[in-house]
Fold:
Amino acid sequence: MSERLWTATLTAEQLERWLVPPRTTAKFTILERLTAIAFPAPTEPIPVSEWTQGRIFGSDFELRWEKRGDHYRAWLAGEQAPEDFWTEVLLPADMQIDKKVGCYLWGPNEMRIAHHLDYRALPEGKGRPWLIRHDFRDKEGTLVYFRFAGMQRKDKS
Structure:
């Protein structure tokens, strides 16, 4: 297995260094708070203080974070080791990664969502947003961890 997982507690400044646009190797973003969800483009700045959790991701890595008090609990999944203050999470040595997993996201005009969803990192076109995921499974097939790896438009068929 070439992908690994790290964790750290970050300050707002440390987190913001990862989020400087343009985010060329992690061009997809999902930001969340109790009353909103957003999908900014890789050229847009991320106002960390306005969101309680989020993630940036692409084919190379995913950085996921959650606000806890004055700091951010973060997880980084990918192949390249980050800076020294990150701690590696030991995953089973026989881990298998399934890269053919995904799910449809809400359409832009879903009535259940109460507002228009704008997937700004996706090109305009037909098809619903499709979230590409890498599942990390142990030898018994149990899901141990997953990371998002991309988004595309895909026809529902």
Q: What stands out?
A: The two ends are 32 Å apart (CA to CA). Residues 4-89 form one domain.
